[in-house]
What we know:
The protein has one helix at about 5-25; strands at about 30-35, 40, 45-50, 55-60, 65-70, 85, 90-100, 100-110. By secondary structure, it is an alpha/beta fold. The protein has a 4-stranded mixed beta sheet with strand order 2-1-4-6, with no helix packed on it. Strands 3-8-7-5 form a 4-stranded mixed beta sheet, with no helix packed on it.
Amino acid sequence: MPRWTALCCLVATLWVAGLGDARRSATAATTHTVVIDGVIFTPTVLTVTVGDTVVWVNKDPFPHTVTSQPGGFDSPPIAPDQSWSYTTTKAGVFPYLCTLHPTMHATLTVE
């Protein structure tokens, strides 16, 4: 095989392999669940990766919110047996609370 043909094959192989890595990275996002029950967020500390989605599921018989410091995230009231999701976009530590029940606290860490 001529050298230029071998070189073209190598470049094509590396290019396709790179696309495969990009596809794997794009689909590597994970969904995490936080349950709201008994006026508690469970888990109270959660670590995720940028691009992951967190779903808060309200099992209490009354609404709750999920509100972090400014620049983080803020849900509308989540009705009983409903959920709210947030896809992380930036790294950081985000303490959050329920604005309707301010004694409810938890922390989301995004790496």
